[in-house]
Input
Amino acid sequence: MRSFIFTLMLFGVMLACIIGNARFIGRLCEDMLDLLDALPARAGEGGGSVLDELDSRWEDARKWVRLSVSSNDISRVNHNLVSLRAFCEFGEDADYLAAREQIRLDLEEIRRFDRFLFGTRA
Output
């Protein structure tokens, strides 16, 4: 009986960790998507403070994100953040918008795979 209770407690802890991680990843992606929306519409119009906040938010969370997100996804976001900064400050509008959209797609993919759902999607 003790092993059954221990197993139930372990299951509860694991379930809480899974749900907590899904909420953390979802909140991080939402925050970063909001920051992306706050960037200027064109390259060269500033946006340095928003880019700093975006980089800071990602760097602070990256050690926790590594627990559930593949290293390829993390590397892709890192690379695209650097590209976004370069294109925002020195690039053409098309490159800047493409880099911005690529980060958006990366974050949405991370959020989609770390979502905690009951049942199936329609």
Remarks:
- Residues 63 and 74 are 10 Å apart (CA to CA).
